[in-house]
Design a protein that fits this description.
The chain is globular, with a radius of gyration of 18 Å. The model has no long low-confidence stretch (mean pLDDT 91). The chain starts with a strand and ends in a 5-residue tail after the last strand. It is built from 8 helices and 16 strands. Strands 6-5-16-13-8-9 form a 6-stranded antiparallel beta sheet. It has a 6-stranded antiparallel beta sheet with strand order 12-11-10-7-14-15. Strands 2-1-3-4 form a 4-stranded parallel beta sheet, sandwiched between helices. By secondary structure, it is α+β, with helices and mostly antiparallel strands. Helices cover 33% and strands 33% of the residues. It has helices at 13-31, 44-56, 68-78, 95-100, 106-119, 143-153, 161-171, 230-242; strands at residues 3-9, 34-38, 62-66, 85-89, 122-130, 133-135, 138-142, 177-183, 186-192, 194-198, 220-225, 251-256, 258-262, 267-270, 273-277, 280-292.
Amino acid sequence: MTVDVAVLVSAAAGRGRAGTVSATVLEALRRGGLTPTVLAATTRAEAERAAAAAVAAGTAAVVAVGGDGAAHAALQAVAGTGTPLAVVPAGTGNDLALALGVPPEPVAAATAAAADLREGAVRTLDAGRTGARWWATVLCCGFDSAVTDRANRLRWPRGPRRYDVAILAELARLRPREVTLTLDGEPRTLPVTLVAVGNTAWYGGGMRVCPDADPADGLLDVTVVGPVTRRELVATRPRLTAGTHVAHPAVTVHRAARVELAGAGLTTCADGEPVAALPVVAEAVSGALRVVGSARP
């Protein structure tokens, strides 16, 4: 007996890597006993509509082949439905795959997803929600959202190095911004360089910005970086990758189920995708996401 799954391929992800590996990924799914149907989509809106139609038709799972953008599109269809999401990393930033412990090689990830789906190895996790948008990893505003936006517009270099180039470009514009941060109804107004609201730990291609975030605790971790110099921000970059930046005196960490952000001229990104301009509300929705795969180190 085979299992029917919908496959959403972001062919442009990873500067074309997802499209290149899609045939071998599909073959790996078939070898694993699945019957994959590739969803026709060339834009994010088309991808979301196609995934939603597949979920409504009763697909056993949606498999997102690409980076965090592909997973984000699939998430809009599966969150809150009970239909599980499987992630096959083949993009520039694969932070959700990293958080889920998915094998980093696409064929290995597809093989593992097929085995887990046939064995019923599905986990229930939280998802973030901002307005009508669902997100799985980190919602950010300030310096980091500006970096994400610039990285998405860059055509060179490929891979995570794009984020490094975007960081250098945005450093020239660095200045603290006043933000009103309300955590579970308690407001505070403060100058910030960036705010990261994490359902999971990683963003920006492997930076552990919310190192203790747990996507099964019903809460969001909030990392706030106050005013810092360009030199301090550059020096903190390696610590972001390790997650040790939280010991810096300019950094505070909070935890809340509902996070409100307000401030002039600021926008937010989540899963590396644009979400909305401030003011926004981010909420942790317990048990909203089912993911294929047993936990792996």
